[in-house]
Each structure stands twice: as C-alpha cells, then as structure tokens.
Amino acid sequence: MRAFIQKLNEVAGEEMYRLPTEAEWEYACRAGTTTRFSFGEDESRLGDYAWYSGNSSPYGKKDVGTKLPNAWGLHDMHGNVYEWCQDWYGNYSNGAQIDPTGPASGHYRVKRGGSFIYSARGARSAYRSSASPDFRSSFAGVRLLRIR
User: Fold this and answer.
1) For the chain, what are the domain ranges?
2) CATH assignment of 20-89+106-146, given 3.90.1580.10, 1.10.390.10, 3.20.20.140, 3.40.50.300?
3) Among residues 54, 48, 115, which one has the least CA distance to residue 79?
4) What is the pLDDT of residues 72-129, one digit of tens each?
5) What is the pLDDT of residue 102?
6) CA 52, 58, 63, 67 torsion: positive or negative?
7) How far is it, in rounded angstroms, from Cα 1 to Cα 137?
8) Whole-number Å distance between alpha carbons of 45 and 28
C-alpha cells in the first residue's frame, strides 16, 4: 500500500496523496453528526447506506457508490470494505482531544468502516479495528486523501 501511494505521488510529481489519519477518517464518516451512524441512530436504515453482513449475500466487496452517500456526499464510509488509516493502533488517551494522532510506532495499523463480512456494530462511525500492515484481504481497502 505504501509503495502504491509512493508511486502515485511520483507520477503526480509531488506529494499529493496519502492515507487519512484515524481522526480525519472518522470526521469524514460522521459528516457533522454525533450519532452511531452518519444517518442517525436507526440501525434498520443501515442497508440503505452500507454493505455489511446483514445484506451482502453473496459475500464479497461491492461496487463503490451503490448505496446512499453520507451528508457530505461520501459513499461507503459504513461497510463494504475496511479502510486503512495511516495511524498506528493504540488506546485512546483520556479526555477530549481535537484532531488526535495515534502512537508514533506500533505493530498494527488502524482500519475503520466495517466490511461486508461484519455486523452492523462494525459499521458504526466510531468502530475501530487493527491489523498488521502486511495484512491483505478482499474485505480491506484504501481511501486516499488528495492534499491541496
């Protein structure tokens, strides 16, 4: 993944792309809300916005944009595939923070968003997961940020 981003930036001729931080990812997912999902608390509406274990039979990633977007026009923030973040996984610190960053190093990177094999709980805006950076799967992907 890092090699892909590096090559993409080489082709662009400058550092234009990167993975989102965990805080950036959650901010984009929530789209100004404070509820469990970007569309509110009503889990019965999740199928309108996400591919998850409750509606993705046969299992497998789905085309992006086939479900409703959040209020900021972003598709598939809930479900479909987990999305890698640039932060190392670690415990949250106590107290409120603005734009927090993860640990400086670690063994696992943060994944956010849930996937087609996970329950509705895994698709919540605040749900976080982790995996080794060399983990590869059909239920993990990336959402790149364009810096500018």
Assistant:
1) 20-89+106-146
2) 3.90.1580.10
3) 115
4) 999 999 999 999 999 999 988 887 888 888 899 999 999 999 999 999 999 999 999 9
5) 87
6) negative
7) 12
8) 19
